[in-house]
Amino acid sequence: MLRHLDTSPRGLTEAQAGERLVRHGVNTVLAWRTESWPRRFVHSLRDPFTAVLLCLGLVSAAVAAWGTACVILSLVVVSCVLRTSGEYRADRSMAGLRDLVATTATVLRRSDPDAPGQAREIPVGELVPGDVIRLGPGDLVPADVRLLRANGLTVHQAVLTGEAVPVAKEAIDTPHPPPYDGIFQQPQLCFLGSAVASGSGTAVVVATGTRTRFGSAFGGPGAGPGARDGGARREASAFDPSVLGVSRVLIRFMLLTPPLVLMANAAVRGRGLETLPFAVAVAVGLTPEMLPVIVTLCLARGAARLARMHGVIVKRLPALHDLGAVDVLCLDKTGTLTQDRPVVDRALDAHGNHDPDVLHWAAVNAWWTLQLAELPAPDALDEALLEAAGPDGEEYDGVAALPFDPVRRLATAVVRDPARLGVHTVVVKGAVENVLERCALEQGERERLLALAAREADGGLRLLAVATAERRARTGTGTGACTPADERGLTFRGFVVLGDALAPTAADALRALTDRAIAVKVLTGDHPGSAAGTCRALGLDPGEVWTADRIDALTDAELAEAVRRTTVFARCTPEHKARIAAALRTAGHTVGFLGDGVNDLPALRAADVGIAPLGAVDVVREHADVVLAEKDLTTIDHAVTEGRYGGVAITTYLRITLSSNLGNVIAMLAAGLLLPFLPMLPAQVLAQNLCFDAAQLAFAYERPHPDAVRRPTGLRPRGLLRFITGFGALNAVADLATFGILALALHGPDGMDDAAVFHSGWFTENLTTQALVMLLLRLGRRGAEGRRAPSPVVRAAAALAVAGLLLPLSPLGPPLGMTALPVLYYVLLAAVLALYAAALKAARARYDRRAGGLVAGPAHGCTVAQSSNLR
């Protein structure tokens, strides 16, 4: 390897390093860059709803409807500014997180070819293939390296493989031949993204940047520095197709409405292009102008609340909506359901019975190995032993120790009991096979103990074997007083069984997620038994555990069916995780994925919303949509709840606005055919829309009842279309009833010739019926229960009704073409409103029953909550 890389154990010269830095590039997987505010603003115009509004504003300007054009374009600007500002702040917060990663490495460099190598710290970006580096406890491996020397070296590879325990590494001369447990298990190789748990080593850099295994998972050499997508385009999230679906419905209506208005007026009333401004006003009236503002305001407020109260950074605002729609959460076991450390489960004697004496001797070994070998810190297994048994070794005098050796797979301590002079006790613990072969056992007994260990480990638990021997005291201290020859003829004591330490909040968080109708899928590279045991300990039924080989045998269609009924997938590679996430989406689920290692990156891309903790590797944090302050499922529950509040507000706005607008458009088309004048002047349409839109802003500030966010929320275009069609027709009936009142009750058969009276009456009726709709069709409307002050929606609806009643009577009435109405009209209007309210409540109750106990299920517009909670 040294010859291949044209280097030596003394390291590269400065000249060689400089030349290779130019040739291979800097040692970074991604060249971070923060997108500028103006670029983000331009990109926000790509939002489908915003694009529809922008086109309508330009059309309004083309037909000289300057007031409408100004209002619409102002809403576009406000929406884009809100969205851009929120995402820009999130990106700046992420820039601060990037400073948390390691930035230097210890490298051997020479001033000239004949000089000795000098160790010095350099930025990791300056490492090149052929550099010789030194590794110590706590160091992050800065590149892919091949070990030249190692002393008790173990590394954490969880970010690459998902393994919870450190992996032993050694500087063997030749790789293990295949079949072997993958490239990451080759003992002579360490990889970028892993961290040194214990021991030390010297290694030569074999790959840097995007040519590392880490970089290959991120995007490979083709991605290059500065690639934003890691060489693969991110899948569209759940929010994108739903928004596009609703946008297509609106665009069809808007493209169809103006020609219908023009043709109907030309055929029936003989009007020409003078009705074009009115036709455009009708199309604008159908559009939910405030939707981009409502969506952005709801999500931005939710993101700000999460950042302030829970330390959650939402990098992409639509991702918060996706979180509210998530009904399946995929996660790894290690570090999420469990902590990144083992704990002692039990101690067994040679017959499988509980024996605390075995744990005592294991702790004696751990204590004196740590004390005499001068290790910087105990490894994870020793920590677990000492935590369970305490510092039992203090009652002895330590004589000598041999620390854990990856080749021998043993650790040995020699201690002296002060009460027994002249006798030393050798205490050995380590891998079962290695300890048993050093014990004085018959072959049959050894095979029985191996079988017992295999049964105990079948559940994915880890076992340490413990043995002791008494030796005559020898002179000398330190490791020289203990040799591998002392590890022979031992007396077998028993096994210490270790499992994974459960995350303290995991059980409660899993119950909370279940209560919110979110199914949890565990995707892990760990042992199937270990994964199943952890799930059972947390109250999650694992059912039948699937392993990677079963997944490989299925087609995509078969996997999409299988993932519905399977909870735990073990021995998963990154490709398996991504395939499972994609299969869940194919099966119609909205998928969230929580990951922190580079092995989680493909699945993070494949999910609807990618979630990463603050401690995740930097490339995963960069690609995640949501970054958590802590790797805690409780924090995800808070984020999901906030997303659902936003989803309820957005869905409520769409349902109410579109149904009201559709009713108005139907009534306008009918009135245009019946009346000798335009049913509403463009200025009146604009004033009505302004009043209604201003009131609708209240939905962004409404906090629905908690029962309204117990189920996933999501836009369903077909269900939404059915809802707005039904309730829009009901609204049109109320409008037509108002026409009858105006025509017959007030002025007789010729009453329809009074344009000012008609415009005033319909304007008042429109705003008051819309106020009723806001109150009776909103979701989770008991959010203010228990509070004396009315909710923001109640106040806004009241203000809208007052505006509808008083505006025709105010000084603004005549300039808008409206006049005062007789008292009798208000009496008859009250009767119409009462009947309309009763019809709305009856239709709402019928709709809820047909939705199968939901306000709107997956096929009915959105998934929100049980209708009994929204009466």
UniProtKB/TrEMBL annotation:
The chain crosses the membrane at residues 49-82, 249-268, 280-300, 720-746, 758-780, 792-811, 823-840. The keyword tRNA-binding does not apply. Its EC number is 7.2.2.14. Its main location: membrane. Residues 1-65 form the Cation-transporting P-type ATPase N-terminal domain. It is a multi-pass membrane protein. Keywords: ATP-binding, Cell inner membrane, Cell membrane, Magnesium, Membrane, Nucleotide-binding, Phosphoprotein, Translocase, Transmembrane, Transmembrane helix. It catalyses: ATP + H2O = ADP + phosphate + H(+); Mg(2+)(out) + ATP + H2O = Mg(2+)(in) + ADP + phosphate + H(+). GO terms for cellular component: plasma membrane. It is an enzyme of class 7 (translocase). The keyword Transmembrane applies. Pfam families: Cation_ATPase_C, Cation_ATPase_N, E1-E2_ATPase, Hydrolase. GO terms for molecular function: ATP binding; ATP hydrolysis activity; P-type magnesium transporter activity. Belongs to the cation transport ATPase (P-type) (TC 3.A.3) family. Type IIIB subfamily. Mediates magnesium influx to the cytosol. This is Magnesium-transporting ATPase, P-type 1. The gene is mgtA.
